[in-house]
Amino acid sequence: MSLTGPIFETLRRSSAGAALLEITESLADVHVVGGTVRDSLLGLTPREIDLVVEGQIDELVEGLAARFSGSVTYHDRFGTATVEVDQERVDVAQARTELYRTPGDLPEVNQLSGVSIDDDLLRRDFTINAIAVQLSQPGRGTLRAASNGYEDLVARQLRVLHDDSFRDDPTRLLRLARYVTRLGFEPEPHTRSLVKEAVGQEVMRKVSAARIGAELRLLLAESDPLSGLDCLDRLGLLEDIASAAAGSKTDPQSLVELAWDRQRAKDALSLLPVDGDKAALLVAICLVVAARNSDVSTDLDTLRTWLDGLEFPTRQREAIVSAVIDGPLLADRLAEAQCPSEIASLLSGKAVEAVCIAGALRSQDRARRWLAELRHVKLEITGDDLVAAGIEPGPGLGKRLSIALARKLDGELRGGRAVELAFALNVRDIQGDDDP
Ligand code: ATP
Q1: E-strand spans in 140-293?
Q2: What's the 286 CA to ligand 1 centre distance in angstroms?
Q3: Any atom of ligand 1 within 6 Å of the Cβ of 35
Q4: Does 267 reside within a domain?
Q5: Is residue 111 part of a domain?
Q6: Ligand 1 center to residue 15 CA distance, Å?
Q7: Which end of the chain, C or N, has fewer beta carbons within 10 A?
Q8: Over pLDDT 70: what percentage of the chain?
Q9: What span, in angstroms and rounded, lies between the C-alpha atoms of 251 and 249?
Q10: What is the pLDDT of residue 311?
């Protein structure tokens, strides 16, 4: 098979790709690029198809949308568009060069017209992403790559395209951690020294907290986020992430600290049920580990402000906050719980992420039992059954149900609905309006 054969195989396997191969028989200057080429050459399935056109994108986008029956979204900022249908996505961009006027800010599109694919490749983050394959005729299948692009892919290493790369866009440090995690690649020696230099110059502090948050969430969404965090820790980037959107260094109350403890994070993740939030849990464990290692105690407002600065959605922010606040408290109390109903009374209503933190810190078996088993235990009867049997609605009714549930959790109420109803109707120690 030719060098670029795997890319055409990838395209033929998807409906968008097949449509693309037909359309580009008669369209000029279309190239498949970036992650699509990289992943196909590595034998992986690309997440989307990335295309670059040397010239206007409209004809390709409209042709693709019509043939592939996809919906089109144009993104004004860079003259790019996305065509999507079901799970498939094609990103189309006009070849461009970019200019970083202020380090850390988003780049300006420096030039669109007359830009070649070779120029476009040079604006990219790493050489392994600066590879393109021509789709249009004549010349379909021609491979173009920035210097070392193909060789670096074969050698499984990450190399920036120029020495100012991390200064121009420090989020590339986080992207590097993402590719280390996802692909298992390592930076080559010169790039490694540029990383060190950039971290030493604290370049990340020039980036908006929102951009850092976005990259951090992408990293945490990778299939092995622990190795992503290993990498951030190794590169010394956790401190910079903590400083993003945090307050002044002179006021310890307004400081946020992150620290890494792989084993604790692994223990916490091993407890996380499918309805839990992996990213929230990992951020929380870094905050908790840091708090245990130092005397900085971040107050609640500072923590929320920091998470808002990083643009964590409200639900995720609150999961992190409750895990950080409740997790360590629950760890000790949970260790003292004597029976399942005590575990339940401590943990019921708590965020699952807080329970995972408690388990990772101390009470792993109890946390696991709650998450896997006890929190799913329910009575077969409801308040309606008690009302139908003559109990007045009110606090006493709720108390009957909770006593019955506690008995059931402790294994003392077996036999299903009828047994539960008889027990709840006969509960004696009720302090309420409906005392029998
Ligand atoms: P993939 O690399 O699989 O497409 P991704 O989500 O990591 O996934 P995107 O963020 O979609 O990549 O970026 C697509 C391409 O755009 C990358 O392959 C890279 O060449 C380029 N790119 C993205 N962000 C940057 C950046 N900050 N600096 C330079 N190039 C970038």
Answers
A1: 143-145, 157-158, 186-187
A2: 27
A3: yes
A4: yes
A5: yes
A6: 23
A7: N
A8: 95
A9: 6
A10: 97
DSSP single-letter state for residue 313: -
Distance of CA 114 to the CA centre of its chain: 37
* Beta-bridge mates of residue 207: none
What's the chain's length in residues? Answer: 436
Last residue of a domain, one of 246, 280, 304: 246
Domain shared by 15 and 123, yes or no: yes
What DSSP designation does 126 have? B
Q: Say yes or no: 414 and 370 in one domain.
A: no
Q: What percent of the chain has pLDDT over 90?
A: 82
CA 240 to centroid of ligand 1, rounded, Å: 22
Best mutation site among 78, 117, 123, 124 for ligand 1 pocket (most ligand atoms within 8 Å of CB): 124
Residue 391: C-alpha distances to residues 1, 90, 176, 407 (Å): 78, 61, 64, 20
The whole-angstrom separation of Cα 159 and Cα 177 is 13
Distance CA 90, CA 47 (A): 10
> Smallest Cα–Cα separation from 204: which of 162, 159, 246, 250?
246
Q: If 0-12 CB within 10 Å is exposed, 13-18 middle and 19+ buried, where does residue 365 land?
A: exposed
Examine the domain organization and report whether 168 and 108 are in the same domain. no
Q: Which domain holds residue 287?
A: 250-374
CA of 129 to the centre of ligand 1 (A): 7
Predicted pLDDT at 415: 85
Q: Ligand 1 centroid to 262 CA: how many Å?
A: 28
Average pLDDT over residues 251-264: 86
Expressed in angstroms, the distance from the first to the final Cα of the chain is: 84
* Number of domains the chain contains: 4
Asked whether residue 436 is assigned to any structural domain, the reply reads: no
Handedness of CA 410, 414, 416, 422 (dihedral sign): negative
Report the largest interatomic distance among the alpha carbons of the chain, rounded to a whole angstrom.
90
pLDDT tens for 233-252 read: 999 999 989 987 665 555 66
CA 134 to ligand 1 centroid distance, Å? 19
Give nearest CA residue, ligand 1 atom 10. Answer: 175
Residues 126, 267, single domain; the answer is no
Same domain, 13 and 131: yes
Helix extents (H) in 310-351: 314-336, 340-347
Q: Take residue 312 and report the two structure tokens written for it.
A: 């964590």
| Residues facing 80 on adjacent strands | 75, 93
**What is the value of pTM for the model shown?**
0.90
Question: Which alpha helices (H) appear in 348-412, and where do they start and end?
Answer: 352-361, 364-372, 383-388, 395-409
Ligand 1 atom closest to Cα of residue 172:
27
- CB of 125 closer than 6 angstroms to any ligand 1 atom: yes
CATH of the domain at 189: 1.10.110.30
